[in-house]
Structure formats: structure tokens, C-alpha cells
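Researcher: Let's run the pair from yesterday's discussion. Sequence first, then C-alpha cells, for each.
Model: Starting with the first of the pair.
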Amino acid sequence: MEEKKVLSPWIISKRFDLTWFIAPGLISVIVVLLANYFGFPEPSPLGSSRTSGNALPPWLWLLLIPGVDVSHVYSTLFRAYFDKEVWNRKKVLLALVPFLCFIAALILYSFGKLFFWGAMAYLAVFHFIRQQYGFLSLYARTEPKTESKLPFLLDKICLYMVTGLPVLYWHLVPGGRHFEWFMEGDFYQYPNRSLSDFIHILFWVWVIVYSLSQVYLLLKGRRISAGKILLLFNTASVWYVGIVLLNDDLAFTLTNVINHGIPYMALVFAYSNFRKKQLPSFFYNAFRNGALAILTFSLVLLAFAFSEEWLWDSFVWREHPYLFANSSVIKAELGVGLEGILVPIFFLPQFTHYILDGFLWKGGKNNSELEGFL
């Protein structure tokens, strides 16, 4: 059974991977391309992007930001803090990382609001790229081992090219983009038409070169993971369409959030189902029933996500009383002047998620809980 898992071109199974790891990003790309063709809907003046900008219709903001983006952050609870064995073995790491993140956030915010959000934006970009690298590594493990490390080196270069080049283009294109990662001005801008055009061309040159390399390997008789190819195609499509091709907040947010959040939550759900005996009794009993497991997992994440967004809106952004029923709290102006401490506190779950993920999903003897699952 173990040997069959290693030889499989899929991480969980063909059906699961295609449904939850590959399809979400590709569907989001198709949706924004169709929306662009038929005309993007005008954003509501009451809408909001990830932080405080007017960008998305309220219902879509609720679906994408609390529903997916913030919810996926809290799925780390199931990967680490709710897993009794992981907590017992890594309690120092799991306790120390949030503390250090909070101290770091306090220091960063002391340099100013824009400095803090800029630093977090670049950290988020790195985190988003590394998540795709993690999935790529899992798919590459299913390919036959050879003495040459060149094929996987090409895979890694491809992953970084199809994600890094669109972000670099974002920094260089004159006029910038009509969207931001967290808030306006969080990315440094160096407008240069010649450089942005060169980056755009380089993206497509690399896609062609990598595609030809895979055709060559197939002709040489090497078995190539279908999951790996689909993942790279999915990643390139999301980052190119969402950042370069379409200059629209809806296109960027929809593709970016869906392709990052849904696959991660699906992976954590599969992990939690595999490790359900290590979960507290309430979750263990829920995970013994498939439908109840999905409902419980989703409701727990949504409860945490909605609570966090309620805090952000009540004490920092103060923009959505019609969504969070917090008008009395907003009118009281609680927390005014305390953003320097409140923002680091409210951002702590996301900051912790960024850092912990670098440790939690690496293989090796320190992650024995992944044995048999991946």
C-alpha cells in the first residue's frame, strides 16, 4: 500500500487533487476571464478589499475574505494546535512563534502603518509562492528518482518564474495596478516600460522553454507527474491572469484568494481526517462522519474568521456596521489611538500562519505525523 502511494502521481487521490488542489484556481481564472469579456460588475461604494479599500461588492468580500482567506489561516489550528501529538512534541515552537510574531509586529508597526503593511505584503507574497512550492515538491516526489537533479531544478525554476515575474511586473509597469495586496502603497513602485515589457516577454519565453523541456523528458521515456504539470499550469494561469493580463481588483482577489485558500484548507482537512484520533474527542467524533466532518471543520474556521473580521471592523477599519452589526461599538470609537497595539494583535493569527507553515509541512524525522499521510 505504501509503495502504491509513492508511485501515484497524486498527493491524496486523482479525484481529490483535481477537485480541491487544481480546479479552484483554474475555475477562478475562467470566471474572471468571462467577467472581463462580459464586463466586470461595478464595485459597490460600500465594498472593501482585504483591508480598507473600496473594491469588492460586500457579499463577495464576505465570501472571499472571511470565507476563504481568513478561514484558511485558522485551519492551521487543526494542523498543529488541535493535534495532541503535534502539540506535545512541538509545544515550544507552537508557543514561541506567536510570541515572536507579536513582538516583530509591534516593532514593524512602530515605523508606521504603511511600513507595517508593506512588510506584511512582501511576507505574504513569499508565503503564497512557498505554498505552491510545497505542493510542487509533493508532486515531484511521485516521479521516478534518477541520479540527475536537473528535472526538479527546472520545476523549481518554473515555479519561481511564473510567480515571481508577475509580481516583478507589478512593481515595474507604468501606472501600477488597480489593486493592492493589503492596502494602497504597500508595494514599492519603480515604473519602467522597457523593463516591464522585458519581464512580460521573459514570462512567456520561460513557459515555452519549460514546456519543451517536459516534452523532451517524455520523449526520453521519463514518467512525469500529471499533477505536477497541472499544478504549474494552474499556478502560471492564476498569477498571469490575475496580475498581468487583467488589471482589476476582482480578478486579482478572486484568483489569488481562491487558489491559495481552498487547496490549503482541503489539504488540512485531509490531514485532520487522517489524524482524527489525535484530535480532541469532539472533533474526533465529528470526523468519524464525512458530512459532519466537513460541516464541523467549515463552521469552526468560519467562526474564527468572522470573529476576527468583527474585531478588525469594530476597532480598526470601522466600515461595515451593516455586515457585522457593530454600529454601537464603532460609534463608541473604542480603540481610537491604539492601532499600534491592536493591529499587531489582530494580525497575529495570519502572521503566525505565515511563519509556522514553513516548519509544519517539511518532511523528516521532526514531522513524523506526516508519515503515511504524504
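Model: Moving on to the second of the pair.
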Amino acid sequence: MGRPRIKDVAEYAGVSPKTVSNVLNDYEHVSEQTRAAVREAIDALGYRINIAGRQLRRGRTGMIALAVPDLDIAYFAELARHVMAESERRSSTTLLLETGGRREKELAAVRGFDAQFTDGVILSPLALQPRDLTHRDTRLPLVLLGECNPPGSADHVAIDNVTAAREATEHLLSRGRRRIAVVGGELRGPQNTSRLRTVGYQQALDAAGIPLSDDLVLPVPAFRWADGAEAARALMRLPEQPDALLCLNDHLALGAVRALHEAGRSVPQDLDVVGFDDIEATRFSIPTITTVAPDKPGIARTAVRLLLDRIDAGTSGGSAVDETAGHRLIVRESSGG
């Protein structure tokens, strides 16, 4: 016997093919007795739903794309795992792509990669310009993560970076720290993640009556361990050294702690260190790292829900949705926890 069809299941259960289809699609108006008979027939015959055929009939591929800058950055790898799990739970498959933070690759993601293999895109951009999004083809459903999001350009999910950085800075101030450096900070420029976190840092200093020192806001070329280490070395060369580091991701924090150790500085006895993202490595380092933990499962659930809602509606038109995910400060050894 060949692969069983809906017709075979219907004959075995003594119902019509339409009734079998209603059971498979979980329609409400089917009696429990009929539903049980169809399920028994499915099990007995080994019938399997042809997902590909179903999606094609609906004009869909059943695949969504997730495009992130760099999978070597643990935050993006961990977030991708949550997105893939949520997508699978919602009967979709996730195609994972790495953009390297390059504008041309992010533009390709916004255009759906000029192909027909994905129903929509979740994108975490670094290099896109506002005009890239305001003039995009809105027929492709798009959800943006992070801060490159001109109002109304696309559905968007992010944490409140200003509040998160302010809370982290307030924690350091509560420990008596007064010369708090921002590793990866930006005093000027577009409203990206680094800039918004620096704004939160400034707000906390202002509220505490502490003047901002430009030499304590240190941009970095990238957000890797080596960049954090080099930034910490540069800060240790200042005539008046900082007594705490607010690092704008955990890779920077881990690199900074290593450089401080090599310089004979003890964390948290000499300096406190706080990071962002709550990547797994921060729970096993010596010392463990105090960090702002975004709700990564919540970000993934929200992004997938927004995207699939657009796909199900058959359009990406209408008002864009802007949702804020949760976060919390986890105090660990690097700031006295």
C-alpha cells in the first residue's frame, strides 16, 4: 500500500473526507466520537499531514527568516535559539542568517532576500538607515529588533534601554561608586542601542548630582571580549581612574574583568563591573557578572507572534506595532552580589 491519503482515512473511519479535514484543522463543530474515530484511523494507517502541500495551497512556504548581526555574540545566538523554538511551536520553520552588521545584507533581509522562500523576516539591524525602512516594500511582513526603527516603518520589539541603563547605573551609585565609566557608550549620534543606554546612564548621574565626564564614556570598535579588555586598559591609564564600569554588553564586561585582573585590580573590591544581556558565560566567570537581563524568551515570543499575525492576515499594512519586552538587573559577584 502506498502512502495513506485523506480518502483512505475517511473510509477507515466511516466518515467523509471533509470530516477528516475538519478534524485535522481542529474545527470546533465535530463530535468527540467522530474526532476519536478519525484519530484512531490516522494512527492505524500511519497517515501524516503533508505540511508542504498545505502551505503551498495557502500561498506560503511555512518558513520565516531571522537575520542577526553576529552569531559569535552570545546574545544573538541565545535569542536565535528562543526564536527557533517559538517558531517551531507555532508550526513554522526558521531560516537563520548572519548579516555581519553590513548594510547590504540587512537591506537584502528587508527585501526578503529577493527570493520566495520565506513568508516574513525578523531582523536585528545595525547598519540600516531610517530611509531604508521608510521606503521599503511593505508587502513583506517585517519585525525589527533593537533600535533602528523609524516610527511606523515596521513592527518592533525591544527592551527599554534607557530605563535599563539607568537602573544599572543607580545600582552602582548605591554602592558608593562615583566615577562610573561606560564601555561602549556614545554621547552623540543616532538613537541606537549604545546611545540610548548612555542616555540612561546620564539620567542616573544627573539625578545623583554627579557631572558627566566625557573621558569616562568610551566608544568601542566592536562589542567583543578584546574590545572590553582594551577599553579597560585605556581607562586604567587615566590620571583619575574610574571606580566602576558599566559595559554595554557582557562580552565587553568579561573582557574588561580579564584586563583588570592582569593589571592587578580586584573586582569588586577595587572596581565594580556591570554588563548587559545575561549570557550564559556571566554565570560561570570569576567573578560572576552583574548584568541587565533582557527577557529573551519574551522577545522571541512577541517577535514571532507579531510576524505570524501579519502573515496570517495576508498583509504587512496597517499601523505598526511597537512592543516593549521586560528586563531585570541580576546582581552578582562583580558588584558585590
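Researcher: Give me one sentence on the second I can quote.
Model: The longest helix spans residues 296-313.
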